[in-house]
Amino acid sequence: MNELLNLLEHDARRPVSELAAILRRSEYEVEKDIHALEKDGIVLGYNTVIDWNKAGRNTVTAVIEVNLTPQRDVGFDAIADRVSRFDEVRSVDLMSGGFDLLVTVEGESLQEIADFIARRLATIEGVVSTRSHFLLKPYKKDGLIVGNKEKDRRLVVSP
Amino acid sequence: MSGMSWDERLSPTVKMIAPSGIRKFFDIAAEMDDVISLGVGEPDFVTPWTIRESCVYGLEQGYTSYTANRGMAELRDEIARMHDERYGIKYDAKTEALVTVGVSEALDLALRSIIAPGDEVLIPEPCYVSYSACTVLAGGVAVPVPSRIENEFRVTPDDLAARLTEKTKALLIGYPNNPTGAVMTKDDLLAIARFAEEHDLIVISDEIYGDLTYGGEEHVCFAALPRMKERTILLNGFSKAYAMTGWRIGYALGSPEVIAAMTKIHQYAILCAPVTAQVAAIEALRRGDKYMRKMVAEYDRRRSFIYDGLTKIGLKCFEPKGAFYIFPDITSTGLTSNEFAEGLLKSEHVALVPGSAFGECGEGYVRCSYATSLDEIDEAIKRIGNFVKKHSK
Prior knowledge:
The structure holds 2 protein chains of 2 kinds. By secondary structure, chain A is an alpha+beta fold.
């Protein structure tokens, strides 16, 4: 199962026939495994890593350090869950160190994100303070270098 | 123009050696812009960044001078440590190790250090293209020992015995094998070891693909077998495991006497391996393993995929256990391996290497390298499938 996950993690678009050949199993078995992984919530979904700047769309992304007051019984979970449900929010992580949650927010403009923080995020009960940092330029996303790939410089035929 | 004729002045030994059979395919392929190449004998990965970065840092620190003839002490220490940890074999880094310009140089030095004119060297084939040429250049006689697909391209004492003469001095083996992808199990090698002992042969073991084995096959280091260290010249390097072909760093391990002899040639002919590459090689041994394992896992996936694909289009293959080559039998097409390779390149724009380039017994096979992306392998298999269909009898 882990080898299947390794394969999907780096390229979710591999055809099932290819996965089956690599894993030495039937296509039917591989389909069944993928379905089970999705059903069990091990595979959460499939995304594409896009260089939006290159595609001509200018999105704005901010990472926000959030301080919370933990709540009885549930600690940070209830607030983290509320924050996670906003569509604008791309990721939420509980952190060690000087703040509690690291929240990544994506929007069409600076104004939109500022609005989201001021009206939605900061006003949630239990949120004590926020500190926002806007991303200026991506160099690497999800393990992939943004920009030109390294060329294959090998000779066409060699011993 | 003067009438000076170089041809009659060139060394007869050099003239005797045939040029590599690969050149022709290179020239044809260079004219095409949509070639998919399964003809490349090197990793498609670029050297892991940590290794490249350490070389850049080394340059900044001023590592630009000669090193000791035998190579940097730190590098020889790391090489000795790795062999101890991995194979439980102890080499003295001071006297039993020599860093060379790739395994190619180590092979040349090993042969030149041991061969007296007319000495014979047993060379199981198919094998890497340099083995017999270097033997001849060293004044020896290359004696090919054919290995067969029925035996998964392994070599046996019986095969060797059939070619043994009083002049046989050494045995030159390269497993995991280029071009077949064959490996030798511990039992296979123990049998070879007994044979070497019985006939008092030197064994040169080229283990450049030693880190690239699959499907639970663990590489067995020949020198680590009982009593074999003293009669083995072990050759290895960084090119394949760490994707460092262009750096040209290899090494030889062996008894102090033979390493001293090899060092003598090395110090006059080469002086030392490039310092920049030695600095990088140290980093490869200290911190490169995790990147190497990732690359090996990727080759393994491609190995399964290409074996499945070639088998499905009707080519009989031996399932390779090491290196990154697969060696399908193409006799069902009625073509020679040269005709197959040339026809495939011209009509389907897929480059590979005819088996005959690796020895006479490679005729009837072609070498496909799977050191290329799965997408390219997929497309290549489709094109080879078209070609095979057109030519199947």
